[in-house]
Amino acid sequence: MSLSYAILGAGLMGRMMAYTLAQSGARVTVFERSGPDAEQSAARVAASMLAPLAESAITEPSVVRMGLYGLDRWKGLIEQLNREVKQQTFFAQNGTLVLWHRLDTAQAQRFAEHLERNVRMNPALSSPWHLDDKALAELEPSVADRFHQGLFLPREGQLDNRQLLTALLQALEQLDVVLHWHTACEPNDLEGQGFDWVIDCRGLGARSSWSNTHNPLRGVRGEVIRVHAPEVKLQRPTRLIHPRYPIYIAPKENDLYVIGATEIESEDLSPVSVRSSMELLSAAYSVHSGFAEARILESATQCRPTLKNNLPEICVPRAGLMQINGLYRHGYLIAPAMMDTAQQLLLGQVSPLAQRFDIQVHHHDFRNSFASCA
Q: pLDDT confidence of 245, banded at 50, 70, 90?
């Protein structure tokens, strides 16, 4: 007889867990406090770049290893989804372009040295290419009039997060997953309801029931702006090194660009501030003048669920309950690794992937775990 799972939260991790479990023949029920558009999820706001080398400058090696794993895993997952549902999800692996203005050359050199050091420590990363004016013009001609050098980070990719969330929703409906929208739910509410496992993927919504009290959840505010810019023809995610407001510009289909992102230690979900808007848009304009005539489609804020070490964790505080949280700013980058690790743990007490990626797994009975839940 197939197992029965309850998934709390229908953001990125909740939908992915529900999808893979339902595909395996399990009976799956999802409970989500908002609606099917994931309007209260950090996954809806994200730029969804898959950039392990770029992120290696500011994150831990374990996240980088998870990101490298995710690059190949995402490709297969999205190809499969595109075959199964009507909603096609954009996925591209054209690398990342890093630019800087002349006055920021010293900072760019330090950034490049950091990346090269990380490549020496992890040969699975692709070495950055140093671009002169000719190479830059060949790679990304639309910025050649403003920049004369840059870095190219091969293999890195991106996807369209909102298309993915919609495709996952369609797949869940086709797999007869039971979906309860606008239904806030705590793990204790489901005791005695016949579920073999309750899997809590609610991000900050799970704070009151998060089991590892030694590593509490907090929110980190991020702000992004979405624009329609037909005059801009960037072919890959582009990052601008800047001492005050470094930004990324992620091109999606149909001349849509996601510009972000601020990072503020706050759980304020009020609209984007004037200061943040000016910094993001002026930095984007400094990359390409075509942004001057872009149309602002949306400015959005959301708080990323973050643990004190900025690394994710999986907790099994008691039999039949699993908590997955703390994906921080790396949700799309590390989601496949976290999903596959959780699947291994559901099948047994040991996860080779958790050991491979140094994912903290806290288990109620202290066996085969890296730490214990408080």
A: confident
Domain 96-154+224-305 belongs to what topology?
D-Amino Acid Oxidase; Chain A, domain 2 (3.30.9)
Confidence class for position 372, pLDDT limits 50, 70, 90? very low
Pairwise CA distance, residues 338 & 201, whole Å? 11
pLDDT tens digit string along 59-107? 999 999 999 999 999 999 999 999 999 999 999 999 999 999 999 999 9
Task: Give the confidence band of 365 by pLDDT, cuts at 50, 70, 90.
Answer: low
- Contacts of residue 146, defined as CB under 8 A and 6 or more positions apart, other chains included, come to 286, 287, 288, 289
- Tell me the HSE value of 313 on the side-chain side, using a 13 A CA sphere: 27
CB atoms near residue 274 (< 10 Å): 8
Cα–Cα dist 65/354, whole Å: 11
Say yes or no to pLDDT of 366 above 50.
Answer: no
Name the pTM for this structure. 0.94
Domain ranges in the chain are: 4-48+61-83+161-217+309-363, 96-154+224-305
What percent of the chain has a predicted confidence (pLDDT) above 70? 97
Residue 63 phi/psi, 5-degree rounding, is: -65, -40
pLDDT over 50 at 208, yes or no: yes
The CA-based dihedral angle spanning residues 62, 110, 260, 95, taken in that order and rounded to the nearest 10 degrees = -70
291 and 285 Cβ atoms separated by less than 8 Å: yes
- Cis before 261? omega within 30: yes
- How distant, in Å, are the alpha carbons of 8, 33, 119, 161, 373 from that of 11? 9, 11, 32, 11, 24
What is the dotted CATH code of the domain comprising 4-48+61-83+161-217+309-363?
3.50.50.60
Token pair for 157: 């990719």
Nearest to 164 by CA among 337, 340, 331, 354: 331
List alpha helices for the chain, DSSP H.
Answer: 12-23, 42-45, 52-55, 61-84, 105-121, 133-139, 161-174, 274-287, 331-347, 352-357
* Percentages of the chain per state (helix, strand, coil), in multiples of 5: 40, 25, 35
Residue 263: band (very low, low, confident or very high) from pLDDT cuts 50, 70, 90: confident
